[in-house]
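Service request form, structural biology core

Requester: graduate student, group of Dr. S.
Request type: structure prediction, single chain
Budget code: on file
Notes: please return the result as C-alpha cells.

Sequence provided:
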Amino acid sequence: MSVAQSDNKAFKEDAMKLIKVSNNAVEASFSQVYAMIPDENLDAFKKELKPIMDNYYEKMAVISMDVYTHEEVKKLLEFYNSKLGKKFIEAQTEITKKAMRMGQELSAEIMPVVQKYRK
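Core staff response, request fulfilled:
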C-alpha cells in the first residue's frame, strides 16, 4: 500500500468516526422508530438496520472528505471528544427530538393551508 493510499485510508477512517460521533442526532431520531417495533423484534430490526446505516455513514464520510481536510477532521474529532463537544452532542440529541416534534406540529398546521391553495 502506498503512502497516499495509507493516508487516504486513515482519512476515511477518521471521517467515518467524525460522521458517527457528529450524527448522534440521527441515532436519536430512531427512538421514535424503535418505539413502533415490538420488543421481541427490536434486536432483529437493529441487526437489519446496521448495514443500511453503515452504508449511510460511509457515504457521509466521503462527502465530509470533500469538505474538510484530514487535519480539520482530526480537530473536529478532538472537539467532539472534549467535555464541551460531548455536551454539544447530548444537547443536539435533545434538540433534534424536540425539533422533530415541532416539525410534525408545523406540518399539521401548514397542511390545511396547502390543501386550500392546492385546488
